[in-house]
Design brief:
Length: 71
Amino acid sequence: MVRCAVCGSEIEKPLKTWTVIVGKNRRTKITFGTFLCERCRRKFKASIGKEPLKPEPKTKPYPPPFMTMYV
Ligand SMILES: [Zn+2]
């Protein structure tokens, strides 16, 4: 939920949302939304969520424990 920057009324549903991936290693996903205030009829954008992305397991997989040799 987001508050209108002009009149302060709460807006529950965004008209539209989209996500942007930012960060040095593209590890943070930010969700933005376009909101329309019912009271003052203003449209504005706000970020509504931010979450870290899990690193992709693209490096070669570690050998399973039973294949690891301990010397
Ligand atoms: Zn408003």
